[in-house]
Amino acid sequence: PQTVDRKRRVMLKLSGEAFGGGTLGVNPDVVSQIAREIAAAVETSEVAVVVGGGNFFRGAELSQRGMDRARADYMGMLGTVMNALALQDFLEQAGVDSRVQSAITMTQVAETYIPLRAIRHLEKGRVVIFGAGAGLPYFSTDTVAAQRALEIHADEVLVAKNGVDGVYTADPHKDPNATLIEQITYNDALVRGLKVVDSTSFSLCMDNGMPMRVFGMEPAGNVTAAIRGEKLGTLVHR
Ligand code: UDP
Asked: Which structural domains are found in the chain, ordered by start?
């Protein structure tokens, strides 16, 4: 499905934690900055986005505190929709057309997830934001980013991280000798026990040859650069 004259198409995974700026809810300054960075790159690339929901709820955490896991996961998914709407708003303010597609039907606020329509939006230069995860409990938004990337034929998954700018030989916050790995195969990352994304997301990308670039959201300009294809952080490939 990749043709030579096609625009670069990326799947950008943003964590909910980033949206909250460290607290519960949405920090408008952070989201508007992200929106402006995406806006600066839409001329040259087609951009799909999956947003997490960790700034609202994480199902696993709520279930540890006594809630039914599946119900807590649905709360988590609903949180991602709020983040998706916030991003849509700031994209609009930055002059970029966007559509939110939700994996859980809520026709008043978002389109339903329809992959072919999502591709059409991308071809028209619209940013497509996928909300509500996969619509399935026990999944993460990292996994959804991998699955959606495959389904819309993205060239690369871009995993934007807070507080770390790629994959390291060891935890850089604990080991002063840890060094950044610029390129690694999925297999080597597995063998060396390097945590990149959760295992379901990892194996989907590995099994289907979807490359993944893990990079830091800081400093400002990194999101734009990653979308444009600059070689930031770590490339994980087959
Ligand atoms: N979630 C889910 N199914 C999905 C995607 C997300 O159940 O397909 C729930 C899950 O409870 C998760 C929460 O939504 O903890 C928020 O997503 P995630 O933790 O991936 O967000 P991030 O860590 O990226 O902010």
From this structure: 8-237 (3.40.1160.10)
State the average pLDDT over residues 64-87.
Answer: 98
58 in a known ligand binding site: yes
Q: Is the CB of 58 under 6 A from ligand 1?
A: yes
ipTM rounded to 2 decimals: 0.97
Check the annotation: does 229 bind a ligand: no
Instruction: Look over the chain and give the mean of its residue pLDDT values, rounded to a whole number.
Output: 96
> Tokens 């294809």, residue?
229
Coil, helix or strand for 121? helix
Which amino acid, 84?
Answer: A
Is any ligand 1 atom within 6 A of the Cβ of residue 234? no
139 annotated as a binding-site residue: yes
Instruction: Categorize the per-residue pLDDT at 3 as very low, low, confident or very high, splitting at 50, 70 and 90.
Output: low
The total of other beta-carbon atoms located within 10 Å of residue 57's CB is 21
Structure pTM?
A: 0.96
Using a 10 angstrom Cβ sphere, with 0-12 exposed, 13-18 middle and 19 or more buried, the burial of residue 47 is buried
Q: Given pLDDT bands bounded at 50, 70 and 90, which one contains residue 134?
A: very high
